[in-house]
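Before a colleague's protein record goes any further, I have to sign it off. What it holds is a sequence and that sequence's fold in token form. Would you go through it and say whether the fold makes sense for this chain? The record follows directly below this note.
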Amino acid sequence: MLEVRAISKSFPGVKALDEVSVSFAPGTIHALLGENGAGKSTLMRIISGIYAADQGQLLLEGKTLHLQSTFDALANRIGIVHQEIQVVPRASVAENIMLDKLGRFRRGLAIDWKAMRREALRYMAMVDLAVAPETAVGELSTAQKQLAQIARALSGGAVILLLDEPTSSLTLHEADRLFELLRKLRDQGVTIVFVTHKLEEVMALCDVVTVLRDGRLIGTQARAELTKDGIISMMIGRNTISRWRGTLPVERETPVLEVQGLSSELFAGLDLRLARGEILGLYGLVGSGRTELAKTIIGEYRMTGGSIRVRGRPARIGSVADSLHRYGIGYVSENRKEEGLIRGATVATNLTITVWQRLAGRLLRLLAPRREIDKASELIRALDIKTPSPLQIVNNLSGGNQQKVSIGKWLTADCDILIIDEPTVGVDVGAKEYIHDLIWKMAAGEGKSVILISSDLPELLELARRVLVFKNYRIVGELADLNERELPYEETSMRIGRFLA
């Protein structure tokens, strides 16, 4: 039994946890839920030895734990898998899995590399990571890197396993395989603390649910006693529903973006047409070609054939800067941590980076700090970004607020065409609803054109009024009638399933 008793933790300008008490029983999968900024990650980091609590106690089997580091946590068989990918890219998969356990394989002054690889293979098989153990981790996909992180935690013999958004980068098959593994570990007596924003996963997998809000404990209940709507109400203090938002005033005769026969090193002959005021959805599994098409359009990947027309004129887009400054096309990356944000910079810097030229002084052409702060403050208010100051380091914000910043910088640039890739991965239901409102307002209220890339089918059906379905770098189907009427989810899901068969 792991117990958290009256734990509190404060950071400059915010109290992250306020006397939180909860018990995690052996042989259970215990969901830890709450909006971004509710205190989930802070509590996980205290349990894993990364943070020290300001007050309160951690107890394991009734004995007080004094964790000064992650090594102390590992010594007590507590393992954590972070949402952010934390690997050594140039090291092999086996080396990454056994990185903190190399002493097991020491033979005098040398390491028995063959024995280490054999041991790593056991844990790779557990998570269905089907690559050679000698493969450099830098060559793996994001999903495969996540599986390597889970294998590393399991290889430490953890009896308490902390998982922070473990399926955020996994395909449905990989997630199902992970759930099978977690149920097996649970049946062996392992305590699993599971943080997720996907309530479908909670309902399908978890035994107990604890909800935090604004750093305080709202309640702990058996999952069987809760409904999905009840959990949402606990998390945000009100009810919210996914809904069909009606029709969009799409100007079909006014295409703002036309792609014909576009080819790259990964795909060939893709066509796409985006009208003014339209939200066009791109649906498919991870690695189906949606993101690669978007990055080719904005000039990040080299096109080898085909043509792009913007507002009826041929476009020559050689870089992301070209796409923004010459053609008014913005791209919100699915990977906000590595591509969407400068994590060590301030909120103000991240929000205004796309318009620094406009904010520069007329004489010396230097960035005017006051203008930067004023513009950032305006966006912080408009987007309801929870930050104590525009000068707060963006890495200190919750995931949902980081996503608002990532979208906000492109709103600052006033792009007419915005490509938004997986906008709500890793954000809570409240932030998700806010981001949906923002995307709809851009199209319905401001006449902007949006390409929405999402693996979340309910999200696409709520917002997009036409959907292209991708598989193996090809467009295999189109739903063109979503702006005419609300279609039952089951019917639409079956139609997409036929395209993907």
About this structure: The chain has two domains: 2-236, 251-500. The radius of gyration is 24 Å.
